[in-house]
Amino acid sequence: MPSEFDKPYDPKEHEDKIYKLWEESGFFNPDKLPGGRGKTFSITLAPPNVTGSLHVGHALEHATSDVLIRFKRMQGYKTLWLPGTDHAGIATQNVVEKELKKQGISRHDLGREKFLEKVWEWKKKYGNIILDQMKKIGASCDWTRTRFTMDPEYQEAVKEAFLHYYKKGWIYQGERVVNWCIKDQTSLSDLELEYQEEKGKLWFIKYPLKNSKEFIIIATTRPETMLGDTAVAVNPKDKRYKNLVGKKVLLPIQNREIPIISDRRIEMNFGTGAVKVTPAHDMLDEQIGADNKLPALQVINEIGKMTSAAGQKFEGMKMLEAREAVLKELESQNLIEKIDDYPHNIAKCYRCETHIEPLRSKQWFLKMEELAKLAIKAVKSGKIKFHPKRWEKIYFDWLKNIKDWCVSRQIWWGHKIPLDGVDDVLDTWFSSALWPFVTLGWPASAKTLAGKSKKNDLETFYPTDILTNDRGIINLWDARMIFSGLEFIGAPPFKDLLIHATILTKDGKRMSKSLGTGIDPVDLITKYGADATRFGLIWQAMGGQDIHWSEEHVVAGRKFCNKIWNAARFVLQQTPPGKKSDFGTPKKSDFEEGGNSKLGFDYASSADKKILAQLKKTKKDIGRLIDKYEFGQALHTLYNFVWHDFCDIYLEESKKNLNAEVLASVLAESLKMLHPFMPFISETIWGHINNKNILMIESWAS
Question: What is the domain-level CATH number for residue 331?
Fold first, then answer.
């Protein structure tokens, strides 16, 4: 028996060596897998941002994807798990700007070209950290195919996609209210906003009726924008205001006449039921304004200051300064009826957390009506299946109420819009939407430019089999990949979409680094090992329900590793010298009465027969559960067999009535079943019992 089994299993001694063994074998690359592998199984990694480091959600996503890839590889499939990273426009630009700020430099001091050189330097230094961390958790990706969304060939593909839409007339420039980040100085889509509840105020303001001593009272959370009001609106069904529709009010402070109009979109139960209409600073107001031919007066500019349209008294003020000045003026005229406390959701930039300002801006848009129809049909027809199915609702709700996509961004890092005289770059998600097929060689021009794209990858591996990600990007990314694949390739990008659980704190709250409630999986790997970390993550992933995180399950995974190690030690002690290469090679018939005498079935005890029957059933159940993406249940089933049936019961029985062949073969088959879930310890032990093949390419079927 090898001397290393004399001491407890220490993942630090084995994991790096085992990962190096896998990489040197070349078997992460589907082109180098042995045997005639006619069937393919492929996954494209959801590309993490180059700014990122591995978080616990990534770790769960990567662990479950790796279970699938390893399982299918052992089943004889030609497997590809294609990795890469996303350039993450705003996020990366912000990180580099912060670094420059420490040196007292801004991007404007450098200019665009020099700044982009700095970004590329940063990417070269830090951009692959998260991919290296993926290796720590055991991800068996084909690193030779690693892609980046700003690779030269990827840039060529994005250009081709944009011009395809442009020539169809689906890309157009228009001026409309967009979500504007004052800090980043760029537009954002609705999906790039995060909402946070804040304690605010609801001001009830009296608007004087023209030629009357009466008022109509409106309620607003943003009194500074009233300087740009061009109407007051009420619901046509609201009997309180029926006689006022068509009349005019004098806009306080501005003394400008504006009409009272009716619109069915007004909520009668908000405030007084009468609302101010500011078409230049609210998306709904913009629609109401367009339908009623109202002017749009922009009173706040791109840097968050009041414009000349706000009036000489307020011009140049910051928004909050203007709010105080407006309220002071209203109070002096006795036009504030009352003020209520009003907690409400505030839209913030998803990257810098700055309050979003709705502003009119000239931007580039992609028409979405026809693309949305394609995406809806693909799921309704069953070409793409959601797991769990309940997440389809979010997808359909968004697509059925979709607006044209604002694809332009006013930043420097990203794919420049390929039109003369345009400095804007494309929304990061525009390029990410092409990921499943661009990474496989689309289009032909990109393939030629790269000179290194694997021939026939697109034909061989597209559509991919499954994508797994968090529910937060169903519409940001998944839906956009689906309609992009259908538009450019004529086929959906994947067959199954697995929405994995969200990992919450033990008491069910969102994890937060700032609050100290986040979990760093790299710390877990350092403390317990990769297999124990994978075990703890997968063990809790049951039925797609959110996970209330408990480190106790990682500790249990560590104990399970020790149990497996000790079982292997016992089996090796019972194995005659020279038997190493005979392990792990039984055929299916070996488990049946009258089968191969190597397993000694004809001389088997009742305990031998029972464990062989349990092994056969367990292996079948685990395969079925993995195929159904029930990874947690599969691991529970495997754990019960290895810990209870094999270690606690059968090994104890073996001490009384030893059948070394059955003992060795059950261990070998157990290692095969363990490998997709706990690849390091299973491969380590396998190396001591079989010198023919490494475990990752052993046949699952037996």
Answer: 3.90.740.10
